[in-house]
Amino acid sequence: MDQSANGPLSMVIEEDWSEIREAVERICMQYPNDYWNELDAASEYPTAFVNALTEAGYLAVLIPEEFGGTGLPISAAGAVLETIHAAGCNAAACHAQMYTMGTVLRHGSEAQKQRYLPKIATGELRLQAFGVTEPTTGTDTTQLKTRAVRDGNQYVVNGQKVWTSRALQSDLMLLLARTTPADEVKKRSDGISVFLVDLREAVGNGLEIRKLDAAINHNTTEVFMDDLKIPPESLIGEEGKGFKYILDGMNAERILISYESLGDAKYFIRRATEYANERVVFGAPIGKNQGVQFPLARAYAEMQAAELMIHKAAALFEGGQHCGAEANMAKLLASEAAWHAAEACMQTFGGFAFAREYGIERKWRETRLYQTAPISTNMILAYIGQHVLGMPRSY
Ligand SMILES: Cc1cc2nc3c(=O)[nH]c(=O)nc-3n(C[C@H](O)[C@H](O)[C@H](O)COP(=O)(O)OP(=O)(O)OC[C@H]3O[C@@H](n4cnc5c(N)ncnc54)[C@H](O)[C@@H]3O)c2cc1C
Count of domains in the chain? Predict the structure, then answer.
């Protein structure tokens, strides 16, 4: 079983990083629902919010001190993201920096780390874009079609990415491309490489970014590469090992996204409970009705259970132990707990849930994403079925 090699585990069950949570909450209070609604309507990036978080150092919590960050564990980064979401804000505009940076940190050369990480820590450079998904291959990442071919002292890249979020707001993009054709490798995950593409140089020189019209304000795009030429120093780690590098970062990504869903669940339960106690219909607060009360009580129980699994996954991750199963389960449980809380909240607010000024419908749309991206629920269930329970692979 996946976790058989793990040793004893100690984990924080109560809320941790209270100073960080309080400070992040103070920042969030300056960006109320109106701010997010206006951006949502105009499909614009929350620049002021991201700048405030960057200046306060909260996007650099996972960057080691030697590269200008605070070098804190994943639970601290999680506390930042959870607090943002629990306050009704959205960290999706900047969360990718926390986990894409990890690929450079773990697999980049010393020169790449020195060149990029300190500037990412100060916000001088934004690494918010992560180009993995492609229109024709979707979840089947090893079949991606984007090709990077070494030609003298450069790589020439051709292909297309879809749903590459924040590419228009990012200076750098982590790009996954095939460097050895699929029919020339032993394992389908071999022959794929990771590149750090400088978008400031690439845009207009073989790379084009087109905004996607999505149901949520996620600043997501399509990226087209047509004979894009990038220097060999863009390659992260060894050529052909990129899929493994990306997999290495996935546990961190899943745990961090779980914290966002946890924050969402807390937001919905808080808003719904307050409303259920205040709103009087038929001469009594609506929360007196079990039809209103019980879905919220159930959502609360689910949220608490998800929180425990998140803490377990984070503790294993921080202890350098296997956490694939827990990171996946945390993401599954938290995204579903958030969705159930969102549904209960929508129902509690009745017609007013649809009034944009309440912020509920925006958060409801936003929280739905996490059952699909960055990995869909089915793929998590497949992981548990195969890697934890030892059943056959279906694909
Ligand atoms: C708002 C948004 C932002 C995103 N941001 C990024 C980003 O920044 N970078 C990036 O690279 N990607 C990003 N994505 C892409 C996201 O990761 C993918 O949408 C997701 O991984 C699913 O891929 P797909 O859409 O191609 O679905 P498909 O692979 O076509 O799958 C469709 C459905 O079929 C199911 N399915 C497929 N195969 C199986 C199987 N073998 N067993 C069971 N079920 C299966 C899937 O679970 C899914 O429910 C984003 C997506 C959205 C919507």
Answer: 3
The pTM of this model reads 0.97
171 and 58 share a domain? no
Domain boundary among 240, 263, 284: 240
163, 209, 368, 378: residue to mutate for ligand 1 pocket, most atoms within 8 A of CB = 163
Cα(81) to ligand 1 centroid in Å equals: 22
Quick check: CB of 138 below 6 Å from ligand 1?
Answer: yes
Whether ligand 1 lies within 6 angstroms of the CB of 128 is answered as: no
Q: Is the CB of 114 under 6 A from ligand 1?
A: no
Distance CA 182, CA 201 (A): 29
**pLDDT tens readout for residues 362-372:** 999 999 999 99
7 belongs to a structural domain: no
- pLDDT of 373 strictly over 80: yes
pLDDT for position 7: 84
Structural domain contains residue 6: no
* Residue 177 belongs to domain with CATH number: 2.40.110.10
Cα 4 to Cα 164: distance, rounded to the nearest angstrom: 36
> Beta-carbon neighbour count of residue 79 at 10 Å?
25
Query: Tens of pLDDT along 228-259?
Result: 999 999 999 999 999 999 998 999 999 999 99
Ligand 1 neighbour 254 (Cβ under 6 A): no
Domain end, chosen from 111, 126, 141, is at 126
| Residue 122 and residue 141 in one domain | no
User: 47 lies in which domain range?
Assistant: 18-126
For ligand 1, pick from 372, 375, 377 the residue to mutate: most ligand atoms within 8 Å of CB. Answer: 372
Residues 88 and 363: beta-carbon distance below 8 Å: yes
| Segment (H or E) for 180 | none
% pLDDT > 70, the chain: 99
- Which residue's alpha carbon is nearest to atom 43 within ligand 1? 378
Q: Which of 318, 175, 333, 193 is nearest to 252 (CA)?
A: 318
Q: pLDDT tens digits, residue range 305-360?
A: 999 999 999 999 999 999 999 999 999 999 999 999 999 999 999 999 999 999 99
- The answer to whether the peptide bond before residue 392 is cis (omega within 30 degrees of 0) is no
Q: Please report, rounded to a whole number, the percentage of residues in the chain having pLDDT higher than 90.
A: 95
Distance CA(362)–CA(216), nearest Å, equals 8
DSSP secondary-structure letter at 392?
P
